[in-house]
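User: I'm writing a short methods note and want a consistent example. For SEC7 domain-containing protein, I'll paste the sequence; you return only the structure tokens, no commentary, since I'll be parsing the reply automatically.
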Amino acid sequence: MGSWSCDARLATDSELDQDLSDRLGLSGSDTLTNGGQRADVAAAKRLAKRLFNLDGFRKSDVARHLSKNNDFSRMVAEEYLGFFDFTGLALDQALRTFLRQFALMGETQERERVLSHFSKRYLDCNPRVIPSEDAVHTLTCALMLLNTDLHGQVSDNY
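Assistant:
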């Protein structure tokens, strides 16, 4: 076997944020985070709307923006989920509706964050169906695992 090397590097979070600021048309004073303290609500709303409408973004871009562990991404996720009305839907129906909009990709903890945002929104829309956000999240993860078991690639080394 031959060896290979890759000189390409991954973009840093600050480079991705700068690219996003450029795409959103933010000026230098209208940043994604104000001194690292408080994220810009208006920018979060604009980004959420563009992500939902896939305006300048691909389905594969959405989860990356919803899954970061910072105030701005949490605001974007909250605004993004606001475009969904899960009222009266069974949990599996709501999850299907949600996951049709984008590709849920990334590391486990990143996918967990996105599913946590979903769980909160589902509970907001259906406060009497399941008793807590944790219960919604647990059932959501169980549905994801069952779906993977049912439709995922089966390994002979099981």
